[in-house]
Structures are given as C-alpha cells and as structure tokens.
Amino acid sequence: MSSVNKVVLAYSGGLDTSVILRWLQEEYDCEVVTFTADLGQGEEVEPARAKAKLLGIQDKDIFIEDLREEFVRDFVYPMMRCNTIYEGEYLLGTSIARPLIAKRLVEIAADVGADAISHGATGKGNDQVRFELGAYALSPDVKVIAPWREWDLNSREKLLAYAAERQIPIDMKRGGKSPYSMDANLLHISYEGDQLEDPWVEAEADMWRWTVAPEMAPDQPLEITLSFAAGDIVAIDGKPMSPATVLETLNEIGGKHGVGRDDIVENRYVGMKSRGCYETPGGTIMLKAHRAIESITLDREVAHLKDELMPRYASVIYNGYWWSPERHMLQAAIDQSQAYVNGDVRLKLYKGSVSVLGRRSDDSLFDEKIATFEDDEGAYHQRDAEGFIKLNALRMRIAGRKRA
Length: 404
Description:
Elements: E1 6-10, H1 15-27, E2 31-38, H2 45-54, E3 62-66, H3 68-80, H4 98-112, E4 116-118, H5 127-138, E5 143-145, H6 156-165, E6 181-184, E7 189-192, E8 222-229, E9 232-236, E10 239-240, H7 243-256, E11 261-267, E12 273-279, H8 281-297, H9 300-318, H10 325-337, E13 343-350, E14 353-360, H11 368-371, H12 384-403
Parallel strand pairs: 1-2, 1-4, 2-3, 4-5
Antiparallel strand pairs: 6-7, 7-12, 8-9, 8-13, 9-10, 11-12, 13-14
C-alpha cells in the first residue's frame, strides 16, 4: 500500500464502512478520522460515534455534523426547482446527498491535515463516481482510497465474516443472511440487495420503514396548503418553516398516508441495470406542488424549456456532476426562472396519492377574463385565431399541394 498517514473516512457505522475502518487501520497502518453526516437519517448517527470509538477512534477524530438544513436548503431545494426526476421515476434521494458529503470530506481532510479520503461505495455502483467527481472538483489533488476496488471482500457474506472475526458489531443481521443495503436521509430511504436483486420478486411488506401501505392508510383524506417563495416551500398551512422542517413535516404526513413508495429498475452510470425500492414521501409531495404553482406562474416557453432541460439536469445529478460547470450553468437558468414562482398550492393526500385541489398566486399569469368559456367582453378576439391557424398551416398546405 502507498504511504498514507491519515485518512478521512465517510463513515455511517453500517456494515461496509465499519469493515473499511478496520481494514484501513490494518492495510494502510494509518490514522483514521471518521466523518458522519447527519442528513436526517436519525438513529444511525450516535451509534456511529459509539462504534467508531469501539474501533479505536479517538473523540477528536470523530466528526458528526448536523447538515440537515444545508442539505435541504442548498441541495434538495435547488434540485426541486427543476422538478427533477431521473428516468421518469427516481427522485434522486441518494444522488443529491453525495455532493454535500464529498464537500465536507475534502474540507475536513484539509482541516486535519489528512493525506487521503475514503468511502464505502462499491466498484459497481454510482456512488463511487459521485463521491470522487465531487472530491476532485473541489480538491483536484486529493488522494482517494476506495477499498471495494482494492480488497477481495467482494460479497456481503465475506464482509459479515470479516466483521465477525474482528468482533465488529453489525446491526440488522438476520442469521447468516445479508441485510438490505440501505441509504437514508431527509429526502428518502432506499433499499437494494437481498431478494430485491430479482426484479420479479415483490418487496417484503415489512421492509418499508417510513410509509404505511396505501391500502392501510387512513380512510379520510388530508388537505394541506403549501406556500412558495421563489420556487421554494416556505410554509405549510400558513406556518413558516425552515427547509429541513418542511421536508421533515411532509415526510411525516406523507408517510402516514402511504405516499412516496417506488420500486424501480434504473440504469446506473457504470452501465448496468439495478433494482431498488425507495420511500420519498416528502419529495413526492413537493414535486406535485411545485409543478402546480409553476403552472400558473411560468410563461409557457419558459415552462417548456425547463421541461426539456430537466432530463439533462437529472442525469448530471445522478451521474455525480453536481460540482461541474454544466450544473452551475443549468442551475443559474433554473433559478432565474423561479423569480415569480410564488403563491399557495392546496393538496389532498389519500391512500398513496397526491392530488392538486387548487393553486393561487399574486404573480399568476392565469387570466380568467381571457380563459373563460362565457362572454369575454372582447378580451380575446376569436376571429384572430383563423389567421394564426392558416399561418401555422402554410408549410403543410404547400407540401400537401406539391404531393397531392
């Protein structure tokens, strides 16, 4: 192994990173600093501190940071302004968290004088790309140690055996069977591996953690009103809230009503297809509401251009290019479009569905005098449509005559 004196490890306290911590100590004979980002995963944070200490890490070398507000304010909200969704289904809950973790990894490495950073992403997945592209963009000369690309512990069974040999405690172990690979933050919780690797097999009912099954949700619908300012939700039912509190609240009420479950087969950046299950209750509500407020506040061509840019923007995030020049360029255009995306959206949550009941805005472009089916009192001259239609039909009429 190359000479490394100190490495900052992105540490969750789960199976992979707990094994990596010990592996780095043994294989690189180096000092390990752990960084755990509190992005809203809740109960995982403090156990990570205890486990790091159990594995010999001193208190001064354990970084656990509450990044919930920064995560939602600076990453989730900007993404939601574009109505971002990957391949028509995935709300990018894991993807959008990685650039923030990469940012703090290289910042902590600089602060503590570390030689390298390390992560627990496998050599088959997207996260290795996301972590490392972010790290290199922000710290071009950083050294990255990716154990999954170096060691021979190439299955979860081998990881469990390694952990057992070294008495590393692992949560959620079911006998000798590997647990799901899960990732959680304020935007979502994801599940991969185990029986989900067969795309025909239905996910176990007891796998889901955040949402009730839609058929078990309350029989009475819930109505809520979300208030927007410059494209971001700033209040729920008239109560001002911070970005993280908005998402926490929407997760809670969405989960109770069975909103936000997805079972997806997606195309990874490295080329393979992967099946994953996701719970994104708050994000599902946010997306529905944002499109609703944009429907009355955005100019038609701006709205259509945003829809054309969205798949590219989604791929940029999914593939790990958050810190790239193209994302910054796209973000500037998206943010400029949100200046007048202000107002309220009224929604109904019912047994897994989110329905729009109404939308209003002082910046609305909806003109009742023009849109009405009743007498418009001369606000719109219907006879003007004839010339409009004929001008737009001109090229087709010419071609039709030539080919008749």
